[in-house]
């Protein structure tokens, strides 16, 4: 029995917020018979999404837009008719490996691949806040799946043979970055070999780590994120915390927005979606920016640069939950990197003691102690004089006869407990 792969998506049909009519009318039509009950288009969302507001990829565009870099989206296909993806040359023809024949990959029945591609390279459109990380990049759509959830509610799985063929095709078509928004819990030989082929061909392979964590204790397996040379991506919410479903382990290299992120939908419009599926393309788009800015940099160097320029996350550096941190497209492109080995600092040398200064400090301490002693002695003598004087005056007034305590007098005389204005002076 063939093992299959699961597409890691939490809310593939999340609610889209309407903010007016669609950007442009579109009538994307899949090949006849390719889609069974395709999802409709959605209204356009005009506000700036939180993920784009936090990452601000536009800061990197004066230096790189990803132009000249082909990013393979190995997924459910990509709808080339979406208003933010329809620019000539933006989405290539690609290929459909899910259906038998020679169909293209530039259509989508369910919007998953379209959403992933839009996060990577959606063009800017007037009046729309949403845009891709690398709008100058090309998208190579490789269709290896259809629906994420079947009619019975069970997750649809991807045949590892089909997935492996799609990966190899993308490499042979010149993709320099590959996005794999899918995860499985078993090591599949065909997929492992195909990923190794891509890594050997200097492709930056970016994979989602999966959404099966929840309340599961400990580290769960995650393939292809776990394969050598793959950049595994987990998801954070708009508070910067790891989404509870986002898996964690040594395969987590970077984090990116994945909670309620805005994506393009097939035909037109946008929808909010959750999952590591939509965190991975933020990193894939950033990799496209770096590859365009530094064309001689190897895939391994690109990955290292993305990790080295990441924004620190809650888990600290290289934690199982957050990896190296949150991807930063701007820093990944612009920050200067030193290629030399860091020198070890010489051990700190303590300065020799200043004997003259120590002697002066000791003199002040001694002088201060003597002054405090003399002051205390003088204050004590003054107190004694005051007490003796008071006793002499009191004795003279009583003509040196014994007197009773005021406390005893108050106990014997009830009038002594009255307020002072009620007392009368006793005449002698």
TrEMBL record:
<dbReference type="InterPro" id="IPR015500">
    <property type="entry name" value="Peptidase_S8_subtilisin-rel"/>
</dbReference>
<dbReference type="InterPro" id="IPR050131">
    <property type="entry name" value="Peptidase_S8_subtilisin-like"/>
</dbReference>
<dbReference type="GO" id="GO:0004252">
    <property type="term" value="F:serine-type endopeptidase activity"/>
</dbReference>
<protein>
    <submittedName>
        <fullName>Type VII secretion-associated serine protease mycosin</fullName>
    </submittedName>
</protein>
<dbReference type="InterPro" id="IPR022398">
    <property type="entry name" value="Peptidase_S8_His-AS"/>
</dbReference>
<dbReference type="InterPro" id="IPR000209">
    <property type="entry name" value="Peptidase_S8/S53_dom"/>
</dbReference>
<keyword id="KW-0812">Transmembrane</keyword>
<keyword id="KW-0645">Protease</keyword>
<feature type="active site" description="Charge relay system">
    <location>
        <position position="75"/>
    </location>
</feature>
<keyword id="KW-1003">Cell membrane</keyword>
<dbReference type="GO" id="GO:0005886">
    <property type="term" value="C:plasma membrane"/>
</dbReference>
<keyword id="KW-0472">Membrane</keyword>
<dbReference type="InterPro" id="IPR023827">
    <property type="entry name" value="Peptidase_S8_Asp-AS"/>
</dbReference>
<comment type="similarity">
    <text>Belongs to the peptidase S8 family.</text>
</comment>
<dbReference type="InterPro" id="IPR023828">
    <property type="entry name" value="Peptidase_S8_Ser-AS"/>
</dbReference>
<keyword id="KW-0732">Signal</keyword>
<feature type="domain" description="Peptidase S8/S53">
    <location>
        <begin position="66"/>
        <end position="325"/>
    </location>
</feature>
<feature type="active site" description="Charge relay system">
    <location>
        <position position="277"/>
    </location>
</feature>
<keyword id="KW-1133">Transmembrane helix</keyword>
<dbReference type="InterPro" id="IPR023834">
    <property type="entry name" value="T7SS_pept_S8A_mycosin"/>
</dbReference>
<keyword id="KW-0720">Serine protease</keyword>
<dbReference type="GO" id="GO:0006508">
    <property type="term" value="P:proteolysis"/>
</dbReference>
<feature type="active site" description="Charge relay system">
    <location>
        <position position="112"/>
    </location>
</feature>
<keyword id="KW-0378">Hydrolase</keyword>
<feature type="signal peptide">
    <location>
        <begin position="1"/>
        <end position="28"/>
    </location>
</feature>
<dbReference type="InterPro" id="IPR036852">
    <property type="entry name" value="Peptidase_S8/S53_dom_sf"/>
</dbReference>
<feature type="transmembrane region" description="Helical">
    <location>
        <begin position="373"/>
        <end position="394"/>
    </location>
</feature>
<dbReference type="Pfam" id="PF00082">
    <property type="entry name" value="Peptidase_S8"/>
</dbReference>
């Amino acid at each position: 029995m063939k093992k299959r792969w699961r597409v890691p998506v939490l809310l593939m049909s999340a609610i889209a917020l309407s903010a007016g009519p669609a950007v442009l009318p579109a009538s994307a039509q899949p090949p006849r018979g390719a889609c069974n009950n395709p999802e409709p288009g959605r209204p356009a969302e005009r506000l700036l999404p939180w993920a784009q507001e936090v990452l601000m990829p536009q800061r990197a565009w004066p230096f790189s837009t990803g132009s000249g870099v082909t990013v393979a989206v190995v997924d459910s296909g990509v709808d080339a008719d979406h208003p933010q993806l329809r620019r000539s040359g933006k989405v290539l023809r690609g290929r459909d490996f899910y259906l038998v024949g020679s169909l293209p990959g530039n259509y989508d029945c369910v919007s998953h691949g379209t959403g992933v591609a839009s996060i990577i390279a959606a063009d800017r459109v007037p009046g729309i806040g949403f845009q891709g990380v690398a709008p100058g990049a090309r998208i190579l759509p490789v269709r290896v799946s259809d629906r994420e959830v079947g009619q019975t509610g069970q997750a649809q799985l991807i045949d590892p043979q089909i997935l492996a063929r799609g990966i190899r095709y993308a490499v042979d078509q010149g993709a320099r970055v590959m996005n794999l928004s899918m995860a499985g819990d078993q090591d599949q030989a065909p997929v492992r070999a195909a990923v190794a082929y891509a890594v050997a061909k200097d492709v930056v392979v970016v994979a989602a780590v999966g959404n099966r964590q929840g309340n599961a204790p400990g580290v769960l397996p995650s393939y292809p994120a776990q394969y050598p040379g793959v950049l595994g991506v987990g998801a954070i919410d708009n508070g910067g915390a790891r989404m509870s479903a986002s898996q964690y382990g040594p395969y987590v290299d970077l984090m990116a927005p994945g909670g309620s992120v805005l994506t393009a939908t097939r035909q037109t419009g946008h929808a909010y979606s959750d999952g590591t599926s939509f965190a991975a393309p933020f990193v894939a788009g950033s990799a496209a920016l770096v590859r365009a800015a530094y064309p001689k940099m190897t895939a391994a160097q690109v990955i290292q640069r993305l990790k080295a320029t990441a924004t620190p996350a809650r888990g600290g550096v290289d934690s199982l939950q957050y990896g190296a941190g949150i991807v930063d497209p701007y820093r990944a492109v612009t920050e200067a990197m030193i290629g030399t080995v860091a020198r070890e600092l010489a051990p700190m040398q303590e300065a020799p003691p200043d004997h003259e200064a120590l002697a002066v400090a000791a003199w002040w301490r001694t002088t201060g102690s003597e002054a405090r002693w003399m002051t205390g002695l003088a204050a004590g003598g003054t107190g004694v004089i005051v007490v003796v004087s008071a006793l002499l005056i009191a004795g003279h007034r009583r003509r040196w006869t014994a007197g009773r305590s005021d406390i005893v007098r108050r106990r014997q005389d009830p009038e002594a407990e009255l307020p002072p204005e009620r007392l009368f002076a006793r005449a002698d």
